[in-house]
Amino acid sequence: MAANRKNRIRKSFSRAASTYDDYAYIQRRSADYLKEIVAGAANVETVLEIGCGTGNFTACIADVLPDARIFSLDVSFPMARRAACKFAGADRVHFMNADAELLPLPSAPLFDLVTSNGVLQWLDDLEGALANIRGVLRPGGQVVLSMFGSRTLSGLAEAIRAELAPEASIPAERFPDYDEIRELFRGSFQRVEFVKRTMARTYKDFRSMLRALKATGVAPGGGRPLFTTRGQMEMVEKNYMERTGRVTASYEIIFVKACSGA
Question: Residue 209: which region, alpha, beta or left (left: phi > 0; alpha: psi -120 to 50)?
Fold first, then answer.
């Protein structure tokens, strides 16, 4: 991932640390669905969570795997710190400020399960990240995670292109598409299963949607101002409403379950 882009993403999520829990509706729904898959994992003593955010999905893991030791990391220090505060005194849950693309590769694999909720789509080198994940899994270890696909917030992206410039885009358009995710996971793991779902949240108006996206770190402008004038925002809002009829943020979410080799 280019250093400047990674830094913008880190700053965007760091700024959202104090507001994330109040607005992370889709992320919580995704965590609840993922929790049921994690609950079916067998013989799990150690877990690595990539991208813990404020610890909401960490709590799901701890609930369904009450005997496992959990190691959770996040590239944003404010996010990891906020999550750690929720688990003060919980000796089996450990938090780290670390980069998901720079996992330390131990001499012997450490984890029975690697999991993540809506994080890996932010990485430029997904194939490299999957190789690193495979490197920290014990033989027969499992991967259970969710990713946002390239159709996330597609209505907003189309309205922006129509009103601002044909080459205009939002960060979600850089997310890998479903076919790419399938190909990469099947090339890295065994017994891979996929479920694709669309989850949406409707808002009272356009500004409320933009405010919620920013408050969860999923800033449509990637940490930079999306609109330079009020008139631009009003044009995009009008186009968006003409396309959708309502203000709805729609997320394409791919859930993945896979195993490492024996």
Answer: alpha
Amino acid at 68: A
Q: Which residues pair with 197 in a beta bridge?
A: 253
Rounded CA separation 194/221 (Å)? 30
- CA proximity to 151, closest of 178, 128, 184: 178
With vertex at residue 159, the alpha carbon angle to CA 157 and CA 165, rounded to the nearest 5 degrees, is 85
pLDDT digits (tens, 9 = 90+) for 3-25: 777 888 889 899 999 999 999 99
Asked, for residue 221, whether it belongs to a domain, the answer is: no
> Does residue 206 lie in a domain region?
no
Rounded to two decimals, the pTM is 0.92
Per residue in 198-220, pLDDT tens? 999 999 999 999 999 999 988 66
Cα distance between residue 45 and residue 126, in whole Å: 26
Pinpoint the alpha helices (H) of 174-246.
178-188, 206-215, 230-244
CA distance 217 to 219: 5
Q: d(Cα 182, Cα 33) in Å, to the nearest integer? A: 19
List the domain range (segments joined by +) for residue 12.
3-151+173-200+251-259
